[in-house]
Amino acid sequence: MSIRALLADDHVLVRQSLKSLLEHEGIQVIAEASDGQVALQQAQSLQPDIAVMDISMPISNGLEAARGIRASCPKTKTILLTQHEEDHYVSEAIDAGVKGYVLKSQAVIDLMNAIRQVSRGEVYLSPGISATLMDVYRSKSDRTKDPLTARERQVLQLIAEGKSTKDIACVLSISPKTAESHRTRLMRKLDIHETASLVLYAVRRGIVQP
């Protein structure tokens, strides 16, 4: 039986290239998504064997989608395909339960190896991540735990993307009052009260790109 995969990347050409690569290797691509929120919904609906996702996506990023998939799709294993080598991205990925971390610069060589190993229950990291992983574990005790809920992180991402409270309410299908409540609560939790500082926090946590 072929491996069933979900692809999520906000660039259509990237998805098309990945789909062509995977299907050439006998992988069945059963769904595609352009943001993390849709990726999570599709994973919950279709329960793929593998979810291959970019980190940097609108509305909800790949890290947040990975957390949701781990919680609601226990048989789906997530592989992040990304350009980010920085330790905070790798660290957040490990915390999110990601089973594979592949650099886009090495995708053609590494992605199929990652899918095969992850499908066998193993963990795969691109060779260039090894040194970063060591740094992650050395610094892990110094990292402060993110106090935000999944919804608050999603609101934070939308704030960092420049969305207004009304826009956030529309994107998340909640009332403007609820959106404002999430915003107020996350600012209080973080003790950050300016939008620019919220954006900086989101960047440092790997929630958005600088």
Commentary on this structure:
It is a single chain. The chain contains 10 helices and 6 strands. The longest helix has 15 residues, at 176-190. Helix 1 links the parallel strand 1 (4-8) and strand 2. The chain has 2 domains: 4-140, 3-Layer(aba) Sandwich (Rossmann fold); 150-204, Winged helix-like DNA-binding domain superfamily/Winged helix DNA-binding domain (Arc Repressor Mutant, subunit A, Orthogonal Bundle), CATH 1.10.10.10. Helices cover 53% and strands 13% of the residues.
- Oligomeric state of shown chains: single chain
Shape: globular
Number of domains: 2
| Helix content class | 40-55%
> In order across it, which strands form the biggest sheet?
2-1-3-4-5-6
The count of β-strands is 6
Q: At the third CATH level, what is the topology name of the largest domain?
A: Rossmann fold
The DSSP helix count reads 10
Separation, N- and C-terminal Cα atoms: 41 Å
Features:
alpha/beta, Arc Repressor Mutant, subunit A, single chain, 210 residues, Rossmann fold, globular, 6-stranded parallel β-sheet, 2 domains
Set down the secondary structure blueprint.
Blueprint (H helix, E strand, L loop, with lengths): L3 E5 L3 H13 L3 E6 L2 H11 L3 E4 L8 H11 L4 E6 L4 H9 L4 E4 L3 H13 L4 E2 L4 H10 L10 H11 L4 H8 L3 H15 L4 H10 L6
Parallel strand pairs: 1-2, 1-3, 3-4, 4-5, 5-6
Helix pairs in contact: 2-3, 4-6, 7-9, 7-10, 8-9
Gist of the model:
The protein is an alpha/beta fold.
